[in-house]
Recover the amino acids of this structure.
């Protein structure tokens, strides 16, 4: 796979490879496997590596990237690394510490893209999915515009080259785009997109605002029993539209 020329220009001037390697895996897959599969992906030619704090494997993914830099396979600037801000850290004062925690796990000086994982705030704390005594999610009240301002500061500080969002609908995107004093537009919106969910309207909206739509589950998706009904159709890698 030749990574050269297979890139899309983002609205902040940086470039994102059109094909990315996602490192999410179900809980039953050992986190240690992320090390070897990420190494293999880089050897195969992938230059866009996508992970997240939620995936609990950034330490292993970072180790894989650093090992391929150390042996001369790639340079740091060859790799486009995406990380994500989880829902328990959407309060503005928690954004930079969350990114710095990812950077510490990765042992990298910066990420290429940092995105809001979901436009839903959950109660801050160690639990990824905080629940009350009845098993219901405990939400938090956060203005996403304030979260976005904190991401802008992370970009200005050089902790991330670009900033974007994930799983946003057009109304949530409009809220960011119409924010008074907006300094940087989201460069992308990473969403589920495949033949059974073609996202044509959202794609048109993103294109009209020079926002790249990054598709996950583009050729198929893992059957996570908590997320989809057992009789759902299967449609894998993801790509940039």
């Amino acid at each position: 796979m030749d990574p050269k020329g297979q890139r899309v220009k983002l609205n902040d001037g940086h470039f994102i490879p059109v094909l990315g390697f996602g490192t999410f895996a179900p809980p039953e897959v050992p986190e240690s496997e992320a090390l070897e599969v990420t190494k293999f992906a880089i050897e195969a030619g992938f230059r866009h590596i996508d992970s997240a704090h939620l995936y609990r494997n950034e330490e292993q993914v970072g180790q894989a990237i650093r090992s391929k830099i150390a042996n001369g396979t790639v340079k740091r600037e060859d790799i486009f690394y995406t990380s994500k801000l989880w829902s328990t850290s959407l309060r503005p004062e928690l954004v930079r510490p969350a990114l710095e925690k990812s950077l510490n796990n990765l042992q990298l000086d910066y990420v290429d893209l940092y995105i809001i994982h979901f436009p839903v705030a959950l109660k801050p704390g160690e639990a990824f999915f905080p629940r009350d005594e009845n098993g219901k999610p405990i939400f938090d009240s956060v203005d996403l515009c304030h979260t976005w301002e904190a991401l802008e500061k992370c970009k200005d500080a050089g902790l991330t080259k670009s900033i974007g969002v994930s799983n946003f609908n057009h109304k949530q995107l409009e809220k960011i785009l119409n924010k008074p004093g907006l300094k940087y537009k989201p460069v992308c919106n990473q969403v589920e997109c495949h033949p059974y969910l073609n996202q044509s309207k959202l794609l048109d909206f993103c294109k009209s605002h020079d926002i790249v739509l990054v598709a996950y589950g583009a050729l198929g998706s893992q059957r996570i029993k908590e997320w989809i009904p057992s009789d759902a159709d299967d449609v894998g890698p993801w790509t940039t539209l």
About this structure: Strands lie at 7-9, 15-17, 19-22, 48-50, 80-85, 111-116, 160-166, 188-192, 212-216, 238-240. Residues 7-240 form a domain with the TIM Barrel fold (CATH 3.20.20.100).
